[in-house]
Design a protein that fits this description.
single chain, alpha+beta, 4-stranded mixed β-sheet, 3 helices, 37% strand, binds zinc ion
Length: 176
């Protein structure tokens, strides 16, 4: 097996509880400590992605202002906080990133993703929603985005998009 330097099995080598070296159970995706019995599960973090359309049917893409994929396109959204609903995360993220108010949303589907950050691979499940916002007139690029662009989905070049799950959301919409 090729050793992936950012895989949790490579990076998370010590028990979170007692500090001794752990075994990684690849089948159940957890580390197991033979010393104290502690088990640590690697789970997908839940995140939301918003599909916001303009009046002429173009989709809003955020320009990423931070790594990973700085400068590349992304759908607006982000991680769901612990204890938060997906719908609330959608409203909060759109407000934080674009200064816009979500007035309605409908669920499209879920899209798994993985990416390396700070030397560790993270796993997410991105929940895509079609969203309506109060107005697209006074958007502000804030938080972790540096700008926004509208694109016609049918002609969208997927290479402009950073993450695999966002590419898959656009593919899903292109085939709708
Ligand atoms: Zn332990």
């Amino acid at each position: 097996m090729i050793k992936d330097p950012t895989h949790p099995r490579t990076v998370l080598r010590y028990c979170q509880k007692c500090g001794k070296e752990v075994q990684f159970d690849s089948q159940n995706f957890k580390s197991v400590c033979d010393h104290c019995g502690f088990q640590f599960y690697i789970n997908s973090a839940a995140a939301v992605a918003a599909v916001i359309e303009s009046d002429n049917g173009q989709v809003l893409f955020a320009v990423r202002g931070r790594e990973p994929f700085i400068g590349m396109l992304d759908l607006p959204g982000g991680f769901i906080d612990v204890g938060e609903t997906a719908e609330n995360a959608l409203m909060r993220e759109i407000n934080e990133e674009l200064g816009a108010n979500v007035t309605s949303s409908s669920y499209l589907g879920s899209f798994p993703n993985e990416y390396s950050y700070g030397g560790l691979t993270y796993y997410t499940l991105d929940l895509a929603y079609r969203c309506k916002v109060e107005s697209l007139d006074n958007l502000k690029a804030q938080d972790d985005i540096s700008g926004w662009e509208f694109h016609n989905l049918k002609e969208m070049d997927l290479e402009l998009i950073g993450s695999t799950s966002m590419k898959n959301i656009v593919r899903f919409l292109q085939n709708e």
